[in-house]
Every structure is written in structure tokens, then in C-alpha cells.
């Protein structure tokens, strides 16, 4: 059997850049030495758990049917061999046989070096400041709509910087629908599948007035804030109403540097955001800065106009106000901001859980201003990106 016929238990393609050249049997596993001298130990249980054969993994879904708890306690390998094309073949003590593709095995090796290499290759947010005014990634509507490679470039820019612009888009009402669905299905909210950003007399949000909107994320009132926001400009003829953005992670990083105690407080203190109207009553209590388990940034949650009164222990309140005011002051720092007026036929597309957006007040008497917006959850656009990467 050769590597071309070894089953792969998922949908990715695994290039073979390094081959196993020697095996060393260990009491609890098989040690592989690779052609670049790296050594990876694979435990018996790990190998058996990851057997890709059609009895263990249903080939149609490529999801596992076998459960490792059903392997015998004393499972061991009777035999382990490399075949002519570098596949690892294992004969198990319970009679089962497994064959592992070298590219797959290398991509999942968990020796220290392999794990460090994966960590280093993983994408990370590229924090930005005012230099974004010159470096803003923008994409042509037609190209995004018709070319998968441009779609992938756009989604990568969105992942890395959290802020992108689409240009030369049609200004017909509802054109946003097709652009958003080119990426994924839309996340509906109480403001609709698509929301109309216009000054309205019966506004149910400050967004639908002509007031300025300070830097914020949308729907911080929901447990899961929408991942991507589209703001698509159909008309922008009114005086005022320019857009402004900051990278919330860059703001948090600046706060961490200037006032570590304040930073820490904003990562630990739940703040209530709420959005109440005659028919709705949304509430979410969560910290303004959320970190992942490894200390990296997960999300920023902020909208002063949707924030409830702070509820914190009496002795913490002064420090909480200090931290909050500092954070907001930093969002107002010109050296952290991008400022730009959106023109008809342009759209902002940004990571709403990271990048804060704002608009200046505008004068509705001076001309029409009409934006349409919608959201996609982070899982959806990332899934689209990963599937495109399989073919890239
Ligand atoms: C919003 C919003 C920005 C704008 O609708 O949430 O932030 O430019 N709008 O009108
Ligand atoms: Zn199997
Ligand atoms: Zn908004």
C-alpha cells in the first residue's frame, strides 16, 4: 500500500514535506524519526484513537465511529512498519490494523518542536493603529463576487486586521444581500436580517438617529456578539456622518501597557449591556475585554449607549471608573484611529468582536444618508475561509 491509498480522516490535503525514516518501539508508543531528524513519539492510545480506516471513520462524513474507550486496557502494537511511501502501518494486539498517511501524521505530531511550529504558524491578529489610514485593505466588488482567490484574500485580511472595505459596489437597494451571502448566511437580529441605518423619527436605537455614535461594538447586549458587520453605503449626501474605527485589541494592549491594573479589572469585571424597548429586553453581563485561556484577545464588548449602571463592590467602584474612562479615552486617541468618509457604493466589513466603529453626527436636512447593514457570525465566515484554503 502507498501513501496515495492511505485513508485521510478529514477533508484537508496533507503535503508530504518530510518522511518518516526510522521507527523505534517504546513501551507505550512508537517513536518516529523524520527525514529532517525530528523525533515524534506517538502513544499507542493516540494512534489507535486516530486510526483513519473506514471501520473507524465513516468515509462519507469523515467523522469517527470508533470510541477509544472501547479499546482494550492492555492495547499494544504487535508490529509497526514503514511502507515504501512512508506510511506507518501498525498491527494491534486486538487484531485491528491501521495505516497512517505521513503528511497527516506530521501535521498532527505533538512533540515539542511540532507543537511550537504549529503555534508559530497559527494566524494571529495584526494589531493596527493610525497607519491603517494608509494600509486599509480594500477589494473590488466584482472581483470578490466572481473570483474565489480574491474572496479568500478578503477573508484573510478580515481575519488578520479585522477591518476591510469593498469598493465599486452597486447602489441598488438590497445589494448588500448578495455580497454578504457570497460569504455565508446572514445572522438575523431584532433589527432584521438587514437593518436600515437612517435617521428615523421612531428610532429604536441611537444608531437610527442623526446623533454621533461613539466607538462601539454592535449588539454587546447579546451573549454572542455578531462576528462580522457589513455597513454598506447607498447614499451619503448629508453633511457629517464620517466613519471612524479603532482596533479594540490595540486599545486594550495600550491600556495593558499604561495601566495594567485597569486592564486587569476590565478583563475580570462583568458589565451589563442592555437593549430595551416596548417589545424587547436584551441583557448581557460580560467583561469589556475578554481573553482566551492563553491570554490572547478573544473579544471587546463596548457601547456606552447600551451600558447599564456599573454594579461592583463599593471599594472597587472608583477603580472601575478609572479603568473605564481610561479605556474610552484611549479609543479617542487619534494615533489609534482610522477616519474616513464612506462613499456610495462602498462598504465597511469588519470584525465586530474586535474593531470598534463610530460615526460623526450628521445633518439630515442637508442631504440623504442611507446605509444598510447585516451580520455574519464568526464561525460562518471562518468556515468559508478554511474551505477556500483547502483548494488554494
Ligand atoms: C450602527 C452604526 C454607523 C453609521 O448602525 O450600528 O454604527 O455610520 N452605524 O451610521
Ligand atoms: Zn481502524
Ligand atoms: Zn454600530
Describe this protein's structure.
- With 392 residues, the protein is of the alpha+beta class.
- The protein is built from 11 helices and 24 strands.
- The strands form 8 sheets. Strands 9-10-21-13-24-11 form a 6-stranded mixed beta sheet. The protein has a 4-stranded antiparallel beta sheet with strand order 12-22-15-20. It has a 3-stranded antiparallel beta sheet with strand order 1-2-3.
- The two termini are 28 Å apart.
- 34% of the residues are buried.
- It binds N-oxalylglycine (OGA) and zinc ion (2 copies).
- One zinc ion (ZN) binds next to loops.
Sum this structure up briefly.
By secondary structure, the chain is of the alpha+beta class. 27% of the residues lie in helices and 29% in strands.
Shape descriptor reads: elongated
Largest sheet: 6 strands, mixed
Helix share bin = 25-40%
> What ligand species are in this complex?
N-oxalylglycine, zinc ion
- Overall mean pLDDT stands at 96
Could you state the oligomeric state of the chains shown? single chain
Low-pLDDT segments, ≥5 res: none
Beta fraction of the residues?
A: 25-35%
Question: What class, by secondary structure content?
Answer: alpha+beta
Q: What brief labels describe this structure?
A:
27% helix; binds zinc ion; 24 strands; binds N-oxalylglycine; 392 residues
Amino acid at each position: 500500500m502507498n501513501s496515495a491509498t492511505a485513508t485521510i480522516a478529514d477533508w484537508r490535503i496533507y503535503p508530504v514535506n518530510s518522511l518518516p525514516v526510522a521507527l523505534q518501539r517504546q513501551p507505550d508508543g512508537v517513536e518516529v524519526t523524520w527525514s529532517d531528524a525530528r523525533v515524534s513519539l506517538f502513544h499507542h492510545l493516540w494512534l489507535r484513537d486516530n486510526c483513519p480506516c473506514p471501520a473507524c471513520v465513516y468515509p462519507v462524513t469523515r467523522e469517527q465511529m470508533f470510541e477509544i474507550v472501547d479499546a482494550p486496557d492492555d492495547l499494544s502494537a504487535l508490529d509497526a512498519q514503514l511502507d515504501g511511501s512512508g506510511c506507518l502501518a501498525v498491527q494491534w494486539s486486538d487484531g485491528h490494523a491501521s495505516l497512517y498517511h505521513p503528511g497527516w501524521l506530521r501535521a498532527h505530531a505533538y512533540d515539542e518542536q511540532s507543537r511550537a511550529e504549529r503555534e508559530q504558524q497559527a494566524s494571529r491578529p495584526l494589531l493596527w493603529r493610525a497607519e491603517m489610514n494608509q494600509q486599509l485593505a480594500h477589494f473590488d466588488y466584482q472581483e470578490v463576487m466572481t473570483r474565489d482567490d480574491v474572496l479568500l484574500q478578503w477573508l484573510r485580511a478580515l481575519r488578520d486586521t479585522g477591518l476591510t472595505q469593498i469598493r465599486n459596489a452597486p447602489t441598488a437597494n438590497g445589494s448588500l444581500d448578495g455580497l454578504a451571502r457570497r460569504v455565508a448566511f446572514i445572522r438575523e437580529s431584532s433589527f432584521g436580517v438587514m437593518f436600515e441605518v437612517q435617521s428615523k423619527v421612531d428610532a429604536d436605537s441611537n444608531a437610527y438617529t442623526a446623533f454621533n455614535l461613539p466607538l462601539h461594538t454592535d449588539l454587546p447586549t447579546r451573549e454572542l456578539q455578531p462576528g462580522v458587520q457589513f455597513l454598506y453605503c447607498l447614499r451619503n449626501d448629508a453633511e457629517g456622518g464620517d466613519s471612524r474605527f479603532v482596533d479594540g485589541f490595540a486599545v486594550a494592549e495600550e491600556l495593558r501597557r499604561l495601566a495594567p491594573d485597569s486592564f486587569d479589572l476590565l478583563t475580570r469585571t462583568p458589565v451589563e449591556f442592555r437593549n430595551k424597548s416596548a417589545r424587547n429586553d436584551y441583557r448581557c453581563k460580560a467583561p469589556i475585554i475578554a481573553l482566551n485561556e492563553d491570554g490572547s484577545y478573544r473579544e471587546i464588548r463596548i457601547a456606552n449607549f447600551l451600558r447599564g449602571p456599573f454594579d461592583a463592590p463599593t471599594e472597587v467602584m472608583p477603580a472601575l471608573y478609572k479603568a473605564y474612562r481610561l479605556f474610552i479615552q484611549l479609543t479617542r486617541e487619534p494615533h489609534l484611529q482610522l477616519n474616513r468618509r464612506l462613499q456610495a457604493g462602498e462598504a465597511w466589513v469588519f470584525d465586530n468582536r474586535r474593531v470598534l466603529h463610530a460615526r460623526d453626527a450628521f445633518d439630515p436636512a442637508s442631504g440623504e444618508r442611507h446605509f444598510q447593514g447585516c451580520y455574519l457570525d464568526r464561525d460562518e465566515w471562518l468556515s468559508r475561509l478554511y474551505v477556500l484554503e483547502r483548494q488554494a
